[in-house]
Amino acid sequence: MANTILVGAQWGDEGKGKIIDVLTEQADVVVRTQGGNNAGHTVFIGQKKYVLHLIPSGILRKKKTCVIGNGVVVDPIGLVSEIEGLRKIGVKVNGNLFVSETAHVVFPYHRELDAQREVLKGKNKIGTTKRGIGPAYGDKAARVGLRMIDLINAERFEQKLATKIKENNEVLKAFGAKPLSFKEVHKTYREAGNYLRPFVTNTVTLLHQAVRRGDDILFEGAQGTFLDIDHGTYPYVTSSNTTSGGACTGSGVAPNRMDRVVGVLKAYTTRVGEGPLPTESAEIADMLHAMGREFGATTGRARRCGWFDSVATRHATMVNGIDDLAVTNIDGLDTVETIKVCIGYRDGKKKYDYMPNDVEVLARCEPVYAEFPGWRTPTDKARSWKQLPPKCREYLKAIAELTEAKLFIASVGPGREQTIFV
Ligand code: IMP
Ligand code: MG
């Protein structure tokens, strides 16, 4: 399989969890490189549903090494409960999970500040997951964050935490929020630190040993291209680089060691949280929600839905260098009579065949649509390209062509077996 970076080519929730799980079969090592427990990767194995937030989906397969890289922000309490949850259902988490020493730690004051800033923004709020992701990355960039290596060093941790709590309590008070108790935070974080100590290591040298051995490494992206801090619809984005470059900086594996980029996208578009979504449509949202689809894995929020936006996905191919496409949720369109695909934007007289950087302009843009006849046949039982209805194949070929990448996987449901290699 070689070294593969997998990214979301839309606004997150493209079905990366499932595709990663499928591709992991051929990988030796699976690495998370950015984001935190704002992510929610859903994997179905048989009837069993697993939702992972921080731990790479590779953990569900035997004999895979899973790594939480330096680019991730780790909520240690969340990580402990995720490990415990997996162990409770019989998944082995011992000797197969490694956490970077230099990954930054998320604290309760990050979560509280995340919530307070959203309140302050009022109607301009981002619609964050309130997991403290933005403030944690903020501390990292400001060089005032604590890292896993600090968390597992009892003496150093106590000292650094005391300073951090003191400073952040002043800020919380200014927001009119309740200050935190040093004693309480220290106790829970010290316990989590003790629990996590055996997992914490130098993941850069670990990954380089894997590279030298010729292991196949899968870099598991979280969120999606348009939530990228640089390339997304700023400020309605998350605080990390969700595009393929983030896999390098977030792991310490260099660009020339990467072999391939896979982009995951839905056969339509969804977004959770605020910010522009040019193809948003109440019609398709109502239909998908009525089918019980498109509710967030992390926050349970109903996702906003729209038609496939090829202006966006072509942009995603450009900034990620996407080679191959995995199209998911095809079965979600099984009942649609006429399927629309956005092939351009219009803002008054001005036409765009690329995504404007100004979110105010993007929010004003009207999509220009091409129409495709729906196949109106269930696809969830299809197990090969030939078993897909001809109109469905035409649609998939068209969106891949518009996205300027090669169709690689067509996914017709959440199960491992509902995966068609094209
Ligand atoms: P944050 O990452 O919690 O700061 O949220 C920033 C924006 O990214 C919000 O619009 C969230 O809804 C969105 N977001 C964050 N993580 C995910 C994800 O895993 N899937 C989809 N949207 C996400
Ligand atoms: Mg998700």
Describe this structure in words.
By secondary structure, this protein is an alpha/beta fold. 33% of the residues lie in helices and 21% in strands. It contains 13 helices and 20 strands. It has helices spanning 16-24, 76-88, 108-121, 133-141, 148-151, 154-174, 182-196, 203-213, 245-249, 282-290, 310-320, 359-364, 390-403, and strands at 4-8, 29-32, 41-45, 48-52, 65-68, 73-74, 97-100, 104-105, 200-201, 217-220, 260-266, 269-271, 304-306, 308-309, 324-328, 338-347, 350-352, 366-373, 406-411, 419-421. The strands form five sheets. Strands 9-7-5-2-10-1-11-15-19-20 form a ten-stranded mixed β-sheet, sandwiched between helices. Strands 14, 16, 17 and 18 form a four-stranded mixed β-sheet that branches. The chain has a two-stranded antiparallel sheet with strand order 3-4. A hairpin with a 2-residue loop joins strand 16 and strand 17. Helix 6 crosses helix 7. The radius of gyration is 21 Å and the shape is globular. Magnesium ion binds at residues 12-13, 39-41, 297. Residues 12-13, 38-40, 126-129, 131, 133-134, 222-223, 227, 238-239, 272-273 line the site of inosinic acid.
Radius of gyration: 21 Å
**Looking at the chains present, what oligomeric state does this protein adopt?**
single chain
Distinct ligands? inosinic acid, magnesium ion
State the strand order across the main sheet: 9-7-5-2-10-1-11-15-19-20
Could you list the spans in which at least 5 consecutive residues all have pLDDT below 50?
none
Helix content: 25-40%
Distance between the termini: 16 Å
Put simply, the count of helices is 13
Main pleated sheet: 10 strands, mixed
Number of strands: 20
What structural class is derived from the secondary structure elements?
alpha/beta
Round the mean pLDDT to the nearest integer and report it: 96
Shape descriptor: globular
Fraction of residues in β-strands: 15-25%
